[in-house]
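To whoever is on call:

I kicked off a structure prediction for a single chain this morning and the downstream step that reads the tokens threw a length-mismatch warning. I double-checked the sequence; it's 145 residues and nothing unusual in it as far as I can see. Pasting both halves so you can look.
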Amino acid sequence: MLILWIVLAIAFLFVELETVALVCVWFVVGALTALVANLLGAAIWLQVLLFAAVSLVMLLLMRPFLRKYVEPLKTRTNVDAMIGKEAVVMETIDNLAGTGTVKLEGKFWTARSANGSRIPAGMVVSVQSVEGVKAIVTPAFVREV
């Protein structure tokens, strides 16, 4: 069993180093615990039990904690960053006529109303989503620019 625990620990370590996804590190610790138990003369059933228990405890306790430090902070980029921003209607938005343009952060975007209502030029709108190259907007408030 000594060789088995060494081989398992090395194999799990190799897989973890290749993926760097916190998939097998728990089993490395479990295999090393079982290896120590083997060196201390523990029975095979106890070694297997220690391997399973330590691996499970490591997985349940450490994964959530380490995940927030290992995963990079997700920042909204490109189109996702537009959602929630305010824009000014430059050309009246009319879904039925297929017209509408907004100016968002200095750039002009084709726009459509999220609820189908007509939004006159000069209104401030909020971007709800983006479909293709069209900003889907709703009036932000009643003030005109």
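Update from on-call: the warning came from a stale cache, not from the record. Cleared it. Sanity check on the structure: Residues 45 and 89 are 72 Å apart (CA to CA).
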